[in-house]
Amino acid sequence: MSEHPGDRLVARSRPHRPARPEPGAEAGVRRQVVGLLVWAVRAASRLAALVMTLYALFTVFGANPDNVWHRFVEGLAGLLSLGFEGLFRLADPRWEALVDYGLAALVWLVLGSMVASLVRRAAP
User: Fold this and answer.
1) Is the pTM of this model over 0.70?
2) Which of 105, 106, 107, 122 would be a feasible disulfide site paired with 49, CB 3.0-4.6 Å?
3) Which of UniProt's keywords are assigned here (predicted)?
């Protein structure tokens, strides 16, 4: 019986060829640095959003203002509020804090995602 090239189930063995290296070692390092920078931007924005959310919850549920955690979160929230503090005037100050700081938390999340995307796209 004659053998045709298409009749073989297993390809003929060829000498092993090593994988192609990256187009330069610096490209791999650059990619890692950009990835780390994107991670840092997202982590920072999520941390800021967490602080905003915690302060809103502390206010809504009437946390003890003399507690060290409440004072710590309140100080950070004042710095990170992006000017949303006192934006709305509502009848209940608890709702006011929830809306103002909740909106600030959403803005932090959106800004963090946008900046991370821009960093990723701007990288060569």
Assistant:
1) yes
2) 105
3) Membrane, Transmembrane, Transmembrane helix
Residue 11 lies in a domain: no
Report which residue type is found at 93: P
DSSP string, 85-109: TT-S--SSHHHHHHHHHHHHHHHHH
DSSP type of residue 6 = G
- 74 falls within a domain: yes
Tokens linked to 75: 């100080």
Average pLDDT score, the chain: 84
| Residue-number span of the structural domain to which 74 is assigned | 42-124
Q: Which amino acid is at 27?
A: A
* CA–CA dist 110, 93 (Å, integer): 26
Q: How many contiguous H segments (helices) and E segments (strands) does the chain have?
A: 3, 0
The burial of 50, by beta-carbon neighbours within 10 Å (0-12 exposed, 13-18 middle, 19 or more buried), is given as middle
